[in-house]
Write a structure and sequence with these properties.
The chain has 222 residues and is an alpha/beta fold. The protein is built from 9 helices and 5 strands, in the order H-H-H-E-H-E-H-E-E-H-E-H-H-H. A 5-stranded parallel β-sheet has the order 3-2-1-4-5.
């Protein structure tokens, strides 16, 4: 793995470690994959606080997806930038139409441990582009997860992606984590990421990017 793709092992390491410790989340698949694929990490990456952050972030996303799936039983789930994450197994969504998407080399690696069926699919995709959205099936309602992805996109790329999804689906529920420009400059996260590859990490100019006008425009107030 090179550059941004190599970062998929960072949250995998955190979830595997926390799962072994029996705290925050249970992720036997992360434990198994890390045992097979893991590599030596720098001390900053192995920081317990960074590990807790990764685990808690995933737990927040897990709980949100569970709630949305319960509220909208017919909605399809789209996980953009899935990496090696086992969320579909962790939250028990095996009978939900679900698409995990990521770069081709990530999906090729992922297919060593995950298998598609009539409900679950993996798709080659570059989140900086939008053509792949048209490969998704048509439906009325979609639940979109973007965990640890927005910082690798410019504001224009992020806007184009979300508006493309909005124009393709009648109703969208979206959960995305992001940094502001100030957050990127002051965060130790950027230094940690650079330890495992030459990465460009970006932030939004200010939090108003996800303000009321934008939320209405992109997500239809959901």
């Amino acid at each position: 793995m090179k550059d941004v793709n190599k970062t998929l092992y960072m949250p995998l390491y955190g979830k595997a470690l926390l799962s072994r410790q029996g705290i925050i989340l249970k992720d036997k698949k992360a434990e198994y994959i890390w045992e097979k694929e893991g590599f030596e990490l720098e001390d900053k990456v192995k920081s317990k606080w960074f590990t807790y952050y990764m685990g808690m972030r995933s737990a927040v996303f897990d709980n949100w997806v569970r709630d949305k799936m319960a509220a909208y039983p017919d909605a399809m789930v789209l996980h953009i930038g899935c990496g090696m994450d086992s969320r579909i197994e962790r939250i028990g969504a095996n009978n939900r139409v679900w698409y995990d998407v990521d770069f081709p080399d990530v999906i090729i690696e992922r297919r060593k441990y995950y298998h598609e069926n009539e409900f679950y699919h993996m798709l080659f995709a570059d989140a900086r582009k939008t053509e792949w959205v048209k490969k998704l099936p048509c439906c009325e309602h979609i639940i979109v997860i973007m965990e640890g992805v927005s910082m690798y996109l410019t504001q224009e790329e992020l806007t184009n992606l979300l508006l493309t999804i909005k124009n393709y689906y009648k109703r969208v529920n979206l959960l995305v984590d992001c940094y502001t420009e100030l957050g990127v400059k002051t965060s130790k996260y950027q230094k940690i990421m650079k330890e495992i590859g030459k990465l460009v990490i970006t932030g939004l100019k200010d939090a108003s990017f996800f303000g009321e006008d934008y939320r209405t425009k992109v997500c239809g107030r959901t």
